[in-house]
Amino acid sequence: DPYTFEFLFSYKKGWLLYTPVMVFALLGFYRLYRKRKDLFYPAFVFTVVNIYVLSSWDCWWYAASFSQRPMVESYPLLALPLGFFLIAVREKGRLLHVISVSLIIACVALNLFQTWQATHWILDSSRMTKAYYWRIFGKTRISEADYALLEIDRDQFSQGFKGDEEDYYKKEVYFRDFENPRPDIDNASRVDTFGFESKHCLRLDSLHDFAGSFEDYYWNLSNKNYCWLRMTVDVYPTVSPQIASCCLVAAIEYHGHVRDYRALGISDVPVKAGQWNTLHFDYLTPYILHKDDKLSFHFWNNGRKTVYIDNLKAVLWEPKH
Fold first, then answer.
1. Is 50 exposed, middle or buried, given 0-12, 13-18 or 19+ CB atoms closer than 10 A?
2. Is the dihedral angle over the CA atoms 286, 291, 293, 295 positive or is it negative?
3. pLDDT tens, 228-263?
4. pLDDT digits (tens, 9 = 90+) for 75-123
5. φ, ψ at 93 (rounded to 5°)
6. Is the dihedral of CA 268, 186, 218, 4 positive or negative?
7. I need a surface site. Which of 7, 30, 86, 162 has the fewest CB within 10 A?
């Protein structure tokens, strides 16, 4: 699905918001149509198709940049309707011409100033929000408190949660301690002889390699633009972690297509064979693109060796602000 509205108008990276002079170029297509249909049709069709294609990528903001950088190659073509716009307003009278030219100069001046802001790390290249845009509008200096209005820096938190837990609401979305059997899921793999501080757990092996399988639409869980999912499980590998090769997995999916996938294996953390170990995994959701994006998680015994698990839990951390 294209993200044309966001591509053109969003505070995150809207082309017409950060390059407003191009509004006049788009308006100039009307004059171009009236005067030169032979030029209008190829130029207009190309512009529409180009915007549609460029806004159809999942990363429609094109990572770290100012405004919409893939549109730069189209500016020589868009200069044509912009020129016809200036001709049209000049023919309408001196007042309209002066007003239009003044607005264009103001748009260019704003564009240049915001370019300066971007080169001085005031205007962020990928994490802009409405609140931050207006907080820094026209400013040459900002405070550390202003940065809190940006989107979360996902690169900074790639290695796990950092921050104050009191800044988040916590909601348990999944828990299984396997004390109460679910015949449709674990009647063949549930163990009733031992567990982690209990008498029951779940055995995973070559015939049973998945457990958990939680899935729900992201917007059913939260209306925030990001959340943390903290997953924990008690795991008892019967062989060394490198051989056992099992992991906690979290993902964002859209209509069966996995957009973001993260996993933490027992070989990535201090885990010992022949005893119970507690595994923690913090997953930061990516930028949510669709109302049908689904958040999912599960425990995967991809090594297919015998592994026991207990107390499989997932807690959603939703920012308070």
1. middle
2. positive
3. 999 999 999 999 998 988 999 999 999 889 999 999
4. 999 999 999 999 999 999 899 999 999 999 999 999 999 999 999 999 9
5. 130, 160
6. positive
7. 162
Task: Tell me if 173 sits within 8 A of 216, measured CB to CB.
Answer: yes
Q: What are phi and psi for residue 227, nearest 5 degrees?
A: -150, 165
Exposure on the CB side of residue 176, measured as CA atoms within 13 A: 19
Residue whose entry in the numeric block shows the structure tokens 């405070």? 143
Taking a C-beta distance cutoff of 8 angstroms, is the pair 31, 79 a contact?
no
Q: Which two tokens stand for residue 248?
A: 């906690």
Q: Which two tokens stand for residue 305?
A: 């060796």
Residues in the chain: 321
The residue type found at 188 is A
Residues facing residue 315 across a β-bridge: 172, 230
Instruction: Please give the Cα distance from 175 to 194 (Å, whole number).
Output: 18
Q: How confident is the model at residue 161 (pLDDT cuts 50, 70, 90)?
A: confident
Nearest to 205 by CA among 269, 300, 275, 296: 300
Which residue, 20, 107, 30, 27, is CA-closest to 68? 20
Q: Is a pLDDT exceeding 80 seen at residue 272?
A: yes
